[in-house]
Write a structure and sequence with these properties.
Layout lengths: L37 H24 L7 H4 L6 H12 L9 H20 L4 E16 L9 E16 L9 E7 L9 H18 L9 E7 L9 H8 L29 H17 L7 H10 L4 E6 L3 E6 H62 L12 H33 L7 H27 L1
Parallel strand pairs: 3-4
Antiparallel strand pairs: 1-2, 2-4, 5-6
Helix pairs in contact: 3-5, 4-5, 5-7, 9-10, 9-11, 10-11
Length: 464
């Protein structure tokens, strides 16, 4: 017999239960931005400031140790020897063109170069000439005296040419080193420019011991009339077609052309710094076989091949490249920026275009408020201060007087740009809801990123 399956009588058969659909409301979890400690931010800011000051101190305030005549030797540069010349010239008092003091200054320089001629290397020819430019006129086409004709008369100059005695062709092409003896009527001119004359005298002494190995002569021109605009570097460039380097002092600008331009204010090491650099430059250039002639430099100026961009990295390396390459580099960055913007506009459509316009507006607001706040300070200072330009005597005052208002104005303009962009995004993405917390947190970074991008591109346009 087949048995039937038995079922328990105590448990009734289970009936299938109808399923019910339950609606569950979930709240999206927004990613939390990492919390940045104010202490960490303050520490990083302090490290940045300290590092910047360290670079500044190393680059601009770290000067070489001044050398005595014995330490420098016959072929080196001695700051203490140069300072003797500065003291002798400044003790004459102001010596502008036409004064009795300028005659004494010329006599002093002439006696010193005659002594250099006597002690020069036996294979070196030192020629000294003093001449007077009776009358003449220079018509300037650029710079401070653009469109003006500068007339001069009875200007005395001293020329010293140092060349190898047994290389006759070395005088066909020369390197010119020039500075002015005259000063303005109010000062003895320790910085402007007795120090330059002193450096040239010490350079001429050193070069007179090296020039027997040169391929080109070195001419030292001690001129007068610079304070009248007659012998500045602009004259050499416009009238003679010469190219070169211009050296000048920038510290203690408050004493420039005043009675306080004194010998005591010359910083130790500054003349040694200038002299060592000039001496190394002359030794390299005068012995080079690649020094172009004057007509070749004029042709390069016409074609633009001589224009170059150069800068150093902490005094260790010199970076030099042609301006044509710089223009290509800057234009490539501009093209990449435009490509990024165009791609963003194509992908984002109309809202992206409006966002870009508003970002540009924030940049304009930042510039406008930054310049306006600084300009207001510039107008107020003469009204409340006895000195209309107090920052000339203490350049660090620029940080408080102009940098701080400029930063405040930039932040004000950025905040206004933030408000405009916030309003636009709120109206675009939601008519009934507010912006999500993530968008509100990142909105400031959007404005800042757009400001930096537009600003950097504008700078590159200006450089190109």
């Amino acid at each position: 017999m087949r048995r039937r399956p038995q079922t328990s009588s105590s448990s009734p058969p289970q009936q299938p239960q109808p399923t019910q659909t339950q609606s569950v409301t979930t709240t999206p979890c927004l990613p939390q931005r990492p919390h940045r400690s104010p202490f960490v931010c303050l520490t990083l800011f302090a490290v940045l400031i300290y590092s910047s000051y360290g670079v500044y101190h190393y680059q601009f305030e770290s000067l070489p140790i001044p050398l005595t005549a014995d330490q420098a030797g016959k072929r080196g540069f001695s700051e203490f020897s140069a300072r003797k010349h500065v003291r002798a010239l400044t003790e004459l008092g102001p010596h502008p063109v036409g004064s009795d003091a300028i005659t004494l200054a010329l006599q002093y320089v002439l006696s010193e170069v005659e002594e250099i001629k006597k002690t020069a290397h036996w294979e070196v020819e030192v020629e000294v000439e003093e001449f007077v430019a009776k009358t003449g006129a220079n018509q300037m086409v650029s710079g401070l005296f653009k469109g003006k004709t500068l007339v001069y008369s009875d200007l005395s100059h001293i020329v010293v040419r140092v060349s190898p005695k047994y290389a006759a062709d070395s005088v066909d092409n020369a390197v010119l080193v020039s500075s002015h003896i005259d000063t303005v009527f109010s000062t003895g001119g320790a910085g402007d420019c007795s120090s330059c004359v002193a450096v040239m005298l010490e350079l001429a002494r050193g070069i007179s011991q090296w020039a027997h190995g040169f391929k080109h002569a070195v001419i030292f021109l001690f001129n007068t009339g610079e304070e009248e605009g007659l012998s500045d570097f602009q004259v050499y460039k416009e009238l003679a077609g010469l190219s070169g380097l211009d050296f000048a002092y920038t510290d203690n600008g408050a004493v420039y052309h005043t009675k306080n331009d004194k010998f005591e204010l010359l910083q130790l090491g500054s003349l040694q710094h200038l002299g060592e650099n000039m001496l190394a430059f002359l030794l390299r250039v005068a012995a080079s076989s690649y020094l172009p002639k004057a007509n070749a430099m004029q042709e390069e100026d016409k074609t633009g091949l001589s224009a170059a961009i150069y800068f150093d990295i902490l005094g260790w390396y010199m970076i030099v490249y042609r301006q044509r390459f710089a223009r290509m580099l800057h234009n490539s960055v501009i093209a990449q920026s435009l490509l990024i913007w165009t791609t963003s506009l194509l992908m984002g459509g109309y809202p992206a275009a409006v966002s870009l316009v508003l970002s540009c507006l924030s940049v304009i607001l930042m510039w406008t408020f930054s310049l306006s706040f600084s300009a207001i300070v510039a107008f107020i200072i003469p009204l409340i201060s006895s000195s209309p330009v107090p920052y000339i005597a203490n350049p660090w005052l620029v940080v408080g007087l102009f940098a701080a208002p400029a930063l405040l104005g930039a932040l004000t303009g950025q905040y206004l740009g933030y408000l405009v962009l916030h309003t636009y995004l709120a109206n675009t993405y939601s008519k009934n809801k507010q912006l999500s917390p993530a968008i509100r947190v990142d909105l400031n970074w959007i404005v800042l990123s757009g400001s930096c991008l537009v600003g950097s591109a504008s700078i590159r346009i200006w450089l190109s």
